[in-house]
Input
Amino acid sequence: MKTLVIGTGGREHALALALSRDPAVSEVHAAPGNPGIGAFATLHDVDIMDGEQIRDLAQRLGADLVVIGPEAPLVAGVVDVLADAGITTFGPRQDAAMLEGSKAFSKEVMAAAGVPTAGSRTCTSTAEYEAAFDAFGAPYVVKDDALAAGKGVVVTLDRAEALAHAEACGRVVVEEFLNGPECSVFVVCDGTTGYALQPAQDFKRIFDGGQGPNTGGMGSYSPLTWAPADLAETVIEQVVNPTLAEMRKRGAEYRGCLYVGLALTEAGPRVIEFNARFGDPDIQPVLALLTSGLGGLLKAAAEGDLAAVPAPTFADGAAVTVVLASAGYPESSSKGDVISGAGVANGVSDVDVIHAGTAIRPAGPDEDHEHLITAGGRVLAVRAVGYDVADARARAYAAADLISFDGQQRRSDIAAEPLGVIEGGSLLG
Output
């Protein structure tokens, strides 16, 4: 099949790479893609928020499957434009994507479906923020109701910081703090049925030990040897099936990836949040271990017929991803810094260098070659597969050591012992 991946980041690179390794996939296209994807796929220049542009491109290519990577076009209704034109598209329509587009809507659906999650209040004024802080106590969890590129959440012991974040956002969801290690379960859904992928853990904070501000993610690994062996089955039974049923009841059938962010509390798994797409970088190690075809799986989900394909299968061993971020991230980012060593690292056995925020600078008048440069906050992700988590981690960091650019930031404790630690555990005193 011919596939078209929409987006520019690490998630899209990982998806396109997995599709390129699927024997059932004959062509991989990406729009607009990035320099890393361009090494093995055909790139096309489109505005990812313009459904008509993407529709026209998909029709010109004769694409059998379009995969929408980022959340913004999903919430904007790009899938509606494509699906209404008869183009098989993996991703939820606009009404269903509101599970990510509005935290308040998401909590409302969870409550109606009986999904185990944190207690919460949707607030729009200072008096409501303060009342919610009083009700739930510290640590304070404040979430921007709208999309915020993975950086709309503040979890803090500092009430003034929590209040400032709420005031800056306006409409927020204030939640009780869920005490337990967090993990990600990605579920491929066809509206009625969901197939869970292998769980992963993401490291959100910028500094070692779960310190500093939240980011879009600084690293990840899979599998989770410390998590319950039946976690995926539990998520399908307690979370996904009731949610899919509730969405059907609302006339907003959910097809696409339902990201289930969980805290594994003493009382059992509790949902922290839903997202309407694969997470980055936590999907990266999961896709590295996928042994079944990704193309057929996503196409069957988009067509509402997951039963037509077997459940996904995964290799033994483990995978670890380490993110290399630019100077100033997450508050800002440094662009234009020359990157060296990415090609060498990518050539290491069992290692993939995933591009997230890179660009090509043409050769100058006195230069004989172009340069790979930084073009975003999270620049590259180094992903390695190994016999176990420790082996994969050692391989990932050894390859990451080969890459350099000015101001590079990376954590040194991704997938380090002890596994299953609570990110931001310092908040518990």
